[in-house]
Amino acid sequence: MHSKPCFIFGLMFLLIFTITPTVLWVHGQGGEEWRPRQWVEEIIEDISMKNIKEHARVLSSYQSRMTGYPGCEKAASYIYNYLANELGLNVWNWTYNILVPIDHGSTVTVTFPEHKVMKAYALMPNGIQTCKTPPGGLSGRLIYVEDGDPEDFDGFDVNGSIVLMKFNSKGNWVNAMIFGAKAVIFWDTSWTVRGEMDYKSLMAPVKFPRLYITDEDAKYLLKLLGSDRGRSTVVKVRVDVNMLWENVEAKNIFAFINGTRPDLYNQTVMIAAYYDAASEIPAIAPGAEETLGVSSLLELARILKEHPPRRPVIIAAFSGEYFAMSGARVFAEDLFFHHWRKEHAKVARGSLYTFKVYGDQIRITFVLDFSTGSDRLVFTPTGFFMGGWDWSTGRGGPFPGDYFLSKLGDYDKMNYVHTIGGRRYKVFLALPLMEIRGERAWLPSMITHLAEVLNAAGSLAVAFYTASDARLRWSTPNDRFEFVKFENLKPQVEYSFSIIYLVVNDVREETIRVFRDSMMHRPSRGAGGVMGSAIMRGLVGRFNYTKSWYDYDWSRILGDDGQLLVQVRHAGPTQMLYRHYFIVEAMKNGTFLIPGLRPSGWAIGETRYEVTAYVYNRTTGNIEWATDLGYYGTRLWPFGMPVVLMSDEEVDGRRPVHISLFRAGTIIIHDALDPRTLSPPFVSAMRPMDFRVYVTGRGTAPPHYSYYIAAPLPPPLIE
Known about the structure:
Elements: H1 3-28, H2 36-46, H3 49-59, H4 70-86, E1 90-103, E2 106-112, E3 116-122, E4 138-144, E5 162-166, H5 173-178, E6 183-187, H6 194-198, E7 210-212, H7 215-225, E8 236-240, E9 243-257, E10 268-274, H8 292-306, E11 313-318, H9 326-338, E12 346-349, E13 354-357, E14 362-369, E15 377-380, H10 401-407, E16 410-412, E17 417-420, E18 423-429, H11 439-442, H12 450-457, E19 461-466, H13 486-505, H14 509-517, E20 534-544, E21 549-551, H15 555-558, E22 562-570, E23 581-585, E24 591-597, E25 609-617, E26 623-627, H16 648-651, E27 657-663
Parallel strand pairs: 4-5, 5-6, 6-7, 10-11, 10-14, 14-19, 15-18, 20-27
Antiparallel strand pairs: 1-9, 2-3, 2-8, 3-7, 4-8, 9-11, 12-13, 15-19, 16-17, 17-18, 20-21, 20-24, 22-23, 22-25, 25-26, 26-27
């Protein structure tokens, strides 16, 4: 009667005895087994390239995804709805304000011998100058100069004309301006590249309208001009440019995926991409290849939702990429410098519930930045927006290079082959302190990516960036869906998803220690160094002779149609920083704030800034006040140009940059030559060695003056 219960008890005892040692061994390795080959096979099998293609098709169908344009808002809604409604994730929008040039509708109107209104598209501003035409537009005789070379202008009376020329004409539009034309109309972008876009605008605030029209409208104009291109045939047109700087609300979109290990909340992994697009013609920016990062991000979010990771994951889609990565800079400034600790957490009002997020919980960010001119990847934390980093001891903070090289898989440094889960991928791991050389052969152009901004703020980030691809169609109207080579995207997606999936599920004790101790993880302004995220606070005023001091209230002067615009650009060699410039609108009390600048550092690492400000009339399109470089404009810190952000007070904004303006008119001087050398007075940095303004007959400088030098257009980075 009692033998059966004893048998059951004995069996239970036996099972406990045999299982317990195994359980204890697993927990000794971090609580769960390490199955990289199985996980890689699972993740790759679950990837749907069909889903990625569909996301890319939809997002690139909007005419322009440039931040501030309707297509960008549609893209934000699509991403939010997919994450919140299709996947059921907790999603929230992180909004911020950004200044962008909005084309409110520009036109070219034929006024003789016929009457026809054609839709036109304004090009990006020259510095702060949007080239808005005054009420009534600009009228003139139309001429066609093909490529715009000097000989193409032979036989034309260019002065006062409107010039039609091919888009692929490099910087020859400047010839039309020099010869006295009022504006340029471009056409024919059937095949154009990013390098052509780089030629089409200046940093100097030169008011010279540049528009683009469709090939159909251009052929209509050419037919009116006839075979002599307008030498004898009279065709008159009017151009109306209606581009203005507007402060718009932009969105970063975040989704939270809970991890199965609550104790690893402070080892959250963020996966990021940007979702807007760029173009020198802002109203036409389909950016098909620029959708690939965020399209892949949405697919990875689906996979992680269906296969919950052990570590928590934040999915991040940023906007403002073309405007000095504004979305990422605002996010980094807010979360890492103002909400770093748990006790200062930021409240996120998600689609499902409200919760708190703070900078200290994010241990590493992976950035997806793909293109399809190649199927190879570079895995790197560095780029050229922030000018690279010094990761040597004590400067960049700890970097877990060995973890990526040997703990997740096996990397062959000689052949650049990374074996992950039994699969081999051609990848260049451009990781700090790992003694791997040759990344320039893999990156033929200056790359910029979101990881730079986060690293600058002190939170480790690494980008998966397509290698050996010049991205020729990027930032052009031709970056269309039909040109995307998805067969080249597939291996990039497989490799990056495999790495990320292993990291979010790797809970071995040694990996937990790597996350805790061997990752750069501290917000830093970078005083006295080159690593950090500085903030520039400024104050724009004007000298008041009655008070013998400066006034900072601009309310009366600005009125209803004035804007106080500030332009900050890196003033060093172009090979050091790329697209590291900022345009913001100052408040009516003269204050402005710009986060996410590189601190100045010393010697070779020194970063200098050129800071200028203007009062811009939104009705006439004219500059009415300009930066005062005379005596009264250089009496307060930084006492003229350039500006450096080096001390603690400078990098954290406690010491403001002072800019003084004066009421100004504008003249443009072309082809200035040094009479001693009969050559342009420029040095290698494309700035004058010494430039002074004197009053004729007196030999003294005027009390107020300003200048801005536009160097000869250099060859683009990519052609």
